[in-house]
Specification:
Structural class: alpha/beta
Shape: globular
Radius of gyration: 22 Å
Number of helices: 14
Length: 388
């Protein structure tokens, strides 16, 4: 079964990778893009500038990830860390720059590089850095690896999972200090998709040994009926967002949805967040966002972060139905002083390991083979449990 799924994924990837060579519209869009950047300086960083420079030179679209989210997140991480990003001019990679989340880079000082390497020291990031004509001139080079089954004995750098693209696009991540001061109105919160079919994939239980999202919510709804408040329509969303609730507040996307530009402000109203597994693998953008805000996560996959989150310090961990109900009850009964300690520890974890500045600093300080650093893009990924 895995071999068949793998072949299907490979076939789909190959079609996406090469169809641009058969699509005239893709070529037209690429020509317009080149014309736009031809009107600007090919390389506009002044020689005396203190700006660090990163060149992205990708030979494959695999870095795009779902809807272009992964490339956009990587681009944004470097930009948030003080780098001026450039994308090397390659038709195969730029032909779909208009597509969904990948297109967001055009709103964030995108520049396309053609010709010779810059005079300033620069970092090269690529899926095949030694194939790049810029490798020899680079001060450091980062090879993006899509391999699964990372472990702590690996010499690769485990890249942190990012927030959702819409959070970076609306610059909510730059407002964290302010948002952390939000008054906490809800004891425990869940927000996001939870459709039965989509969030009950067999791989979640079989490969990762965690409880699917839909099942976990059903367990809690049954156990905490009177303390469960679910916003069931868009008309009541505003009322619930602005009222206190001492139990479990649920806002499920198929019934009503918080706008992406308001997500962090809404999440910050909670003391604890149900960081339930995603669709094909456990990791979820919401987990990263909750840690950033000091909203203590309740989760089952704490060891899929590097380093692992610690139960009772910066998260609450469950392993089955019984322990899930227990940690949620503990969360709702937790004294304010104890919660504040855990909240501060969650923020400290984010600032130390997950914030773009910290992640890029750790990446570039990681032991290199010469000047080459290998970065594992999805270190939590297990064979058969989703695709990079």
């Amino acid at each position: 079964m895995y071999a068949l799924q793998n072949f299907s994924h490979y076939l789909d990837h190959s079609i996406r990778e090469f169809r641009c060579f058969l699509c005239f519209k893709s070529f037209q869009r690429y020509r317009k893009l080149r014309a736009h950047f031809a009107a600007a300086p090919v390389f506009s960083v002044p020689e005396q500038s203190n700006s660090a420079v990163v060149l992205f030179d990708f030979f494959s679209k695999r870095i795009d990830g779902p809807q272009g989210r992964r490339f956009y997140a990587l681009y944004t991480f470097f930009q948030r860390a003080g780098f001026q990003p450039f994308v090397v001019d390659r038709y195969s990679f730029l032909s779909n720059l208009h597509h969904k989340h990948k297109a967001f880079v055009q709103q964030q000082a995108l520049q396309v590089l053609r010709g010779q390497a810059p005079a300033q020291p620069f970092v090269l990031v690529s899926d095949a850095p030694k194939r790049s004509s810029y490798f020899n001139a680079a001060q450091k080079a980062v090879r993006v690896s899509f391999d699964s089954d990372f472990n702590e004995a690996s010499t690769d750098f485990p890249m942190p999972f990012p927030m959702f693209s819409g959070v970076y696009r609306s610059a909510q991540d730059l407002q964290l200090k302010h948002l952390r001061q939000t008054r906490r109105q809800w004891s425990v919160f869940f927000g996001g998709g939870a459709q039965e079919g989509k969030y009950s994939k067999a791989a979640i239980e079989k490969i990762y040994s965690v409880m699917p999202r839909a099942k976990a919510l059903a367990v809690l709804k049954s156990a905490f009926g009177p303390q469960w408040r679910q916003t069931s329509e868009q008309q009541t969303l505003g009322e619930h967002l602005n009222s206190d609730w001492p139990g479990i507040q649920v806002i499920e996307n198929s019934q009503c949805k918080i706008g992406a530009d308001q997500w962090l402000a809404s999440l910050a109203k909670a003391r604890f967040f149900l960081a339930l597994p995603g669709v094909r693998y456990p990791m979820s953008h919401n987990l990263i966002e909750s840690l950033a805000l000091g909203v203590v996560p309740i989760l089952q996959y704490n060891r899929l972060l590097f380093p692992a989150l610690e139960h009772g310090k910066n998260c609450l961990v469950y392993s089955d139905d019984t322990s899930l109900k227990q940690v949620v009850a503990d969360a709702m009964a937790m004294p304010e002083t104890r919660w504040r300690q855990m909240s501060a520890a969650a923020i400290d974890y984010y600032q130390s390991y997950l914030a773009p500045e910290a992640a890029i600093r750790s990446l570039l300080q990681h032991p290199a083979d010469g000047k080459l650093i290998t970065m594992r893009l999805l270190p939590f990924l297990k064979r058969g449990g989703g695709y990079a």
